[in-house]
Amino acid sequence: AQYEALAARNLQAAEDWYRARCARLHERAARSQEAVRASRREAGGTRTTSFERSFCSCGLQAEGRGLEAQRVTAARVELPQASLPLQDTIGQLEDDLRNTKNEMARHLREYQDLLNVKMALDIEIAAYRKLLEGEENLFNMGSVGLPSLNSLPSPTYSFQPRSFSSST
Q: Which GO terms describe its cellular component (predicted)?
């Protein structure tokens, strides 16, 4: 009877321990399941947030490419408008250069004309000098008198200037 009472008590204690242990395990399992559910919800929320951010990022990248394309297009449009004053300035400078070249060509022609006149005058001066030297030689010889000088034929010189062509 003592063994049976002891076995019944041990059986009762084992069942109590088993039930307490099972209750704690069920409690832990319920908490773990709740934690798993919360983790799944959080993972789902994170996944959703990740997709939203990825989608938003793609949208922002597309918007950035669009804005860059607009900037490039605007730069292409603004470049010719900005270069218009430069083109006007270049055109004005080219006109000034052309006018200066024409003026230089005109001055060169005038210079060559003056040089031709100078050369003609130099030739004429040399001819008169030669005549004067010839008459001085006649006076210095003393053999020729005044009446005989007047009887000498007077040479006539004709001057025809050369024309030089200018290359511009």
A: cytoplasm; intermediate filament; postsynaptic intermediate filament cytoskeleton
